[in-house]
Specification:
24% of the residues lie in helices and 34% in strands. By secondary structure, it is an alpha+beta fold. It has a single domain (17-188), classed as Cyclic phosphodiesterase (Cyclic Phosphodiesterase, Chain: A), CATH 3.90.1140.10. The chain has a four-stranded antiparallel β-sheet, covered by helices on one side.
Length: 191
């Protein structure tokens, strides 16, 4: 939400900046996932453009989308994130499927069942963000990694498990509509 006043006939400024917290796989795992995405795209005759390997991530907490960069919000996220303590944990995704979405923009995602530590970490992080006045923690969290968006719906399909160890989490500044992510802070998982 912006602080801009709106008068009849005026529209809000376009949203240009997003903030979210995420886990990124290591470079070797991201390359494997990107390769798998290309294989699955061909296998299921999908036409959506695969996400670049360096953009593949597991979202943890969406902070918001803004008409200009939210300095104060980013500062509060950085402060809250620095106080989080949790040890590194494994993430494993063993299936792919389409989520519901806008018509023609269905997220094709990796999913997994053995993600209890990921869910626990997301809850800890959500509580810290809520305590810092940065939104409410999600009541339901469905851990996933979006590979691409497509017009076709793919039912859940098993894949060979993709596994990596989460060792840090990242505050991302997304330049909306431009496909650019900038890291504003990284915090190691420790404990």
């Amino acid at each position: 939400m912006t602080d801009q006043l709106l008068f009849p006939g005026m529209s809000a400024a376009p949203l240009t900046d997003g903030l979210f917290l995420a886990l990124f796989p290591d470079a070797a795992t991201a390359a494997r996932i990107a390769d798998l995405t290309r294989q699955l795209r061909d296998k299921y005759a999908l036409t959506g453009r695969p996400h670049a390997a360096e953009r593949l991530h597991v979202s943890l907490h969406g902070i918001g989308e803004y008409a200009s960069f939210p300095n104060e919000v980013a500062s509060r996220v950085i402060e809250a994130a620095a106080a989080i303590a949790m040890r590194p944990f494994d993430i494993g995704f063993d299936r792919v499927m389409s989520f519901s979405g806008k018509p023609g923009q269905l997220p094709f995602v990796l999913r997994g069942e053995a993600v209890a530590e990921l869910i626990a970490f997301q809850k800890i992080l959500g509580a810290a963000m809520q305590k810092a006045g940065l939104g409410r923690a999600k009541a339901h969290y469905a851990p996933h990694m979006t590979l691409l968006y497509d017009t076709r719906r793919i039912d859940e399909q098993p894949i060979e498990t993709i596994r990596w160890t989460a060792r840090e989490f990242v505050l991302v500044h997304s330049l909306l509509g431009r496909g650019v992510y900038k890291s504003l802070g990284r915090w190691p998982l420790r404990g």
